[in-house]
Amino acid sequence: MSYESNPILDKLPKHLKQFIKPQNYEDYTAIDQAVWRYVMRKNVDYLSQVAHSSYVDGLKKTGISIDQIPNMYGMNRILKEIGWAAVAVDGFIPPSAFMEFQAYNVLVIASDIRQLENIEYTPAPDIIHEGAGHAPIIANPEYAEYLRRFGEIGCKAISSAKDYELYDAVRHLSIIKEAHGTPQEDIEKAEKHIEFLQENMGEPSEMALIRNLHWWTVEYGLIGTVENPKIYGAGLLSSIGESAWCMTDQVKKIPYSIEAARTEFDITKPQPQLFVTPDFAFLSQVLEDFANTMAVRRGGLLGIKKLITSQALGTIELSTGLQISGEFHNVIEHEGKPIYIQTKGPTALAYREKELVGHSTAYHAEGFGSPIGKLKGINIAIEDMGPRDLKAYKIYEGEQISLEFEGGIKVEGTIITGTRNLMGKIILITFKDCTVTHEGKILFQPEWGLYDMAVGQSVVSAYNGPADLNSFDLITHQLTETTIKPKKSAKRLQLEQYYQQVRDFREGTNTTISRNKVFQVIKSEFPEDWLLPVELYELAKQSDDHHFQKELLDHLESIKRNNPKVGHLIDDGIKLVDASLVS
Description:
Layout (H helix, E strand, L loop, with lengths): L6 H4 L3 H4 L12 H21 L3 H8 L10 H8 L5 E5 L5 H9 L2 E5 L16 H11 L3 H14 L6 H18 L5 H16 L6 H14 L2 E3 L4 E3 L2 H4 L4 H4 L6 E4 L17 E5 L2 H12 L3 H4 L1 H11 L2 E6 L3 E13 L2 E15 L2 E2 L13 E3 L15 H6 L7 E5 L4 E12 L5 E13 L2 E4 L6 E4 L4 E6 L25 H18 L7 H11 L5 H12 L3 H17 L4 H14 L3
Parallel strand pairs: 1-2, 3-6, 5-6
Antiparallel strand pairs: 3-4, 7-8, 7-17, 8-9, 9-10, 9-11, 12-13, 13-14, 14-15, 14-16
């Protein structure tokens, strides 16, 4: 096993465990640790004024240190006290899997950390975003329940084939943008491809809409009033650039509502508007309103059509409780209702999320088709017929029968047996020598074997994924590309060594190093590096070495002149040091 388990992680289904990877804590360099420390010190200083009160409390409750990148094992020991756990993954994972993890109270953490060059914001999920953004807020019980419930509902949302294409494109961009030395034209090409896909998505799928809700709440949400909002979204909590930008008048603040589901977002740019929820309870209210629009609650013809469009594994549930899981391929409709459904490839039948004995994907390997609805000219549906009714209509073992459904589906054959649910209703009827037709077109013929006819007058639910997780082999996830680990130059390794020496000195593990010698090397060999001189300035300030302080400040001023883009980062770093050492 590549991670240390605990009771919460033990409950995860196998298909989610395939996304988990080891954290490999020893891979974090001293530069990575310095990036974490800088961002966290700046965040806590600023966010203590503008974030929801749960944030600072949550940092303590979840055991997240300001001075070092959190170790997943340590986080899990503390998270389990609030009923959650955390796992490491490689960057973006498919949205449905991400949400399903949430449904199991598991926080997904991309364990890589942004480069120093992207210290303010990265489109790639990283440990600053996940660990410092998501984790602290889940210490708030009401918000944690919203997150769990969101995962539960979100993983049932039906995607479209275009959603999968967009996911791959976004993942690709996030990888190359964070990778060291990617040519600018490659980044621009990837951004243009995403723009093209976003402009040609057609009618948004349920997954696209619920991802919008996720973005405007979990990632970029504000709470309170439009006039005086506080931050709770992880994307804002983990971005030292956007957390300040979002509080200005340049970002429009809108009262949160279900309309957020129809508001698109662009991960490559700062957000032009943000939504403000009055409280965490209101998030759950809007989520339930949205869930009422989904096929998981509405079913019907539209639900089946959404599954067909998705070209992926999905489930419909009939009014009898029978669940059909597979890739839906076709539906015949009549007067706005489905009268026949057809899957292709491996299909399984279930009841109450448990596969029916004898109705696995091995048995229905070529697909499954069945009429839906009521019999023509008979007021009572088959599922509502008692034993006497069934006998009267000759729906009985051994009877050769012809059933004609509303809409013109005909089932002709000899009944072998029926399968009932716990309430005694027939949910499945098995025929031999059976022919199924619609307006003269053959849908099933005797040579194909036994015919299993689902019983149900309506489709009450349609959703992503299988009814019984054990019915399908879901361990099929293949990453098209993985996070790019740069081959480090000798010079880069040398810089990491100097960062480590300064870190060791600060932590008291090696106080024999000469900080002045380190500074002279940085000044001549790495004149663009600004973060280590800021850390050296902190040490000079602590030891009251005024001459060294002045040298460092002069050098930092020259960096600002040569690279104005990092000027505010240097100024903020110096301010933090000065503020923390005021007696």
